[in-house]
Write a structure and sequence with these properties.
heterodimer; A: alpha+beta; six-stranded mixed barrel; 56% helix; B: 235 residues; alpha/beta; four-stranded antiparallel beta sheet; 33% helix; binds adenosine-5'-triphosphate; binds magnesium ion
Chain lengths: 406, 235
């Protein structure tokens, strides 16, 4: 029974090509939008998750300068207020696992004829613990390198690739702002940081060396920020208070005076970011779903028109023996076929759109099988749901009335 | 036993203004293999009677027995089954499916009867050959003449081997030569295949092809008997 009816449905669609195409367009846009929006949402969510993972957990960021709402203030002109001694003092607080005082900056890196502009971070070995850096090759520098301000560097994998191609960079010399450094380690890929920097295109060197030989202008011994890693989530709140008290004390800030530093709980900021992206993903999906519903209403509209137009045909079919359920199925199948074909094209459009977005922007949309299946399932459900009413209307016609219809 | 048996059949149409008594008590028996012409003035209730005979409409009162079952007691789906297997329809306006080939048109009743595809196509082709349209199986209805379209409709009515074929003014849209050809086809099908035929017409020369005449007037049977000798077939 169903077999010949599918043929009928296709023939009915073919008979009204333009109309069928326009009706399907609604579904195409709906499904395409759902898949694309979910892909973009998932892409953003994934990159946020990856940044969170790469940043390490239970992390504080102590930043030089007065607290501000929004963003980390960097290079604001005034000298950094935090010092390497502050960092050491923080390390002695109970519950602190590691500290990483850091001086960031940009530099030209030269190897032979290759010239590369990249970011340089001067820091201490604590950084590798704090940021949970894994090594693809070689090893980190240690305290003695910091004390001795030696010229050793750890570099990111994409920088290594850019400078050395496939060769191992270990033991090779790179010139960072003129000064020669020996590469002792290459990190594993870490992706983007939460503020959008590529953590694979970096040079990490001892903070002392950085200040004396790479960023000549900085005040020796002071750093822009200190990252602090705590033992676990349960000590975070207490530790924040302890750190603030300690630093106010060390910086001789009296009651009522404004701090010249700020302590940020990165874990809570990250969680907020993660839940924001999750909410964004949901919102994108919801908006796209609305277009699916609009597409469904389009199908219902056209099916109602089609039933009215074909009243006489329905009468003839009933006269030659179609049962009510045969007529019901005929129209239901037609709307299901319409929405499924629309959906199929929509999947292609959605996947293609996600590709285009990936090529044209920084976003990395991820099309999941789940979202395609969701789009498909919803489209089929819409075909049935919005097709049922017109189909039932057709099936409930009286044969004699339908035959008389002009 | 009669294929069709009407006893005291009444049909009223109730509009806001009045109640129309269209059929006022019809008693009619038709045996298998008969060829009956129904005539009568316009508005006498011929189509109303045919709709009742075709299980497309139900009488207001009275009993209609078709092939042994009392139609008034059947549900929608059983009525659809009767229309599918026991009855065949030929309409004045042909009523073919415009988008389907002639073969598919003829096979349509078999689709609803659940006959397999290969079987359907074979029987539809055989039927088309029987009405003189072999070789037209894949044509579309709008590519052939009115007379040919009516032949297709007849093939469709006959493909399920129904007990009775009902035709309401089957030649109403055709010229007299084509009409005669259609009637000749009916006559042959009745004579050779024993198909029971009931044909409504306004023309005496059409009715002349039948063997029995039923004359309706004002909702009552005025005459029921052999075709009067003054009716001449136009051949
Ligand atoms: N659905 C309906 N509602 C109300 N009145 C109807 C309906 N169908 C038919 N009638 C009336 O019933 C009467 C008989 O109609 P019917 O169609 O049976 O006549 P007929 O004999 O077939 O006429 P014709 O030769 O013109 O086809 C007419 O007066 C018609 O107006
Ligand atoms: Mg009539």
């Amino acid at each position: 029974m169903i077999g010949p009816l599918i043929g009928e449905a296709l023939r009915a669609m073919a008979a009204n090509r333009m109309r069928s195409a326009l009706t399907m367009l609604g579904m195409v846009i709906g499904v395409g939008a759902v898949i694309m929006m979910l892909a973009i949402g998932k892409g953003v969510e994934d990159s946020v998750r990856a940044s969170i993972a790469s940043m390490g957990s239970n992390l504080f960021m102590v930043v030089s300068g007065a607290p501000q709402s929004g963003g980390i203030r960097m290079g604001s002109g005034s000298a950094p207020t935090l010092t390497l001694d502050d960092a050491e003092a923080l390390m002695d607080l109970p519950g602190v696992v590691a500290v990483a005082p850091s001086s960031p900056g940009g530099a030209q890196v030269v190897v032979g004829p290759t010239n590369w502009s990249t970011s340089v971070t001067g820091t201490t070995p604590g950084y590798f613990t704090v940021a949970e850096v894994k090594f693809g090759e070689g090893q980190p520098f240690d305290e003695s390198d910091v004390r001795g301000a030696t010229r050793v560097a750890v570099i990111g994998p994409s920088l290594a690739e850019n400078l050395f191609g496939g060769d191992s960079p270990i033991g090779r010399t790179i010139r960072v702002n003129q000064s020669p450094f020996t590469v002792i380690g290459v990190t594993e890929p870490r992706g983007q940081s939460i503020d959008g920097r590529d953590q694979d295109d970096v040079v990490i060197i001892p903070v002392t060396t950085a200040q004396r030989q790479v960023f000549g202008t900085q005040v020796i011994g002071s750093v822009r920020f200190v990252q602090v890693k705590a033992e676990g989530p349960e000590v975070m709140e207490r530790l924040q208070g302890d750190m603030e008290t300690l630093l106010r004390d060390r910086h001789r800030i009296r009651v009522g005076q404004e701090d010249d530093f700020s302590v940020r709980n990165m874990t809570s900021i990250m969680n907020a970011a993660a839940s924001t992206t999750a909410a964004m993903k949901l919102l994108l999906g919801a908006i796209a779903s609305i277009s699916l519903i609009v597409g469904g209403i389009g199908i219902m509209n056209i099916m109602l028109v089609s039933v009215t137009e074909r009243t006489r045909e329905i009468g003839i079919r009933m006269a030659i023996g179609a049962r009510r359920r045969d007529v019901l199925w005929q129209f239901l199948l037609e709307s299901i076929v319409l929405s499924l074909v629309g959906c199929l094209i929509g999947v292609l459009v959605g996947v293609g759109g996600a590709r285009a977005v990936a090529n044209a922007t920084e976003l990395k949309p991820v099309v999941t099988a789940g979202s395609v299946m969701l789009g498909f399932g919803v489209a089929a459900a819409i075909g049935v749901f919005f097709g049922f009413y017109p189909a039932r209307r057709a099936a409930s016609l009286q044969p004699i009335e339908a035959l008389r219809y002009q | 036993m009669a294929v069709i048996e009407l006893t005291g059949v009444l049909k009223d149409y109730t509009t806001e203004a009045e109640t129309l008594h269209v059929l006022k008590g019809i008693d009619l028996k038709i045996e298998a293999g008969e060829f009956v012409a129904i005539m009568g003035p316009s508005g006498s209730g011929k189509s109303t009677l045919m709709n009742i005979l075709g299980c497309l409409d139900v009488p207001t009162d009275g009993v209609y027995r078709l092939a042994g079952s009392s139609v008034g007691e059947l549900d929608d789906s059983a009525l659809a089954g009767l229309r599918n297997r026991t009855l065949g329809f030929v309409f004045q306006g042909f009523n073919l499916m415009a988008r389907s080939s002639l073969e598919d048109n003829v096979a349509l009743p078999l689709v609803y009867a659940g006959v397999s595809r290969a079987d359907r196509n074979q029987r539809a082709r055989d039927m088309l050959a029987k009405v003189g349209l072999e070789g037209y199986a894949r044509s579309l209805p709008n590519r052939i003449s009115g007379g040919q379209q009516q032949r297709v409709a007849i093939a469709r009515a006959l493909v399920g081997q129904p007990a009775v074929v009902l035709a309401d003014e089957p030649t109403g849209n055709l010229d007299s030569t084509t009409s005669a050809e259609i009637m000749k086809l009916f006559e042959r099908l009745n004579r050779e295949e024993g198909v029971t035929l009931i044909v409504v017409t306004h023309e005496q020369d059409i009715a002349a092809w039948a063997k029995r005449l039923v004359l309706l007037k004002d909702g009552l049977i005025q005459y029921d008997g052999p075709i009067p000798p003054e009716f001449r077939r136009n051949e």
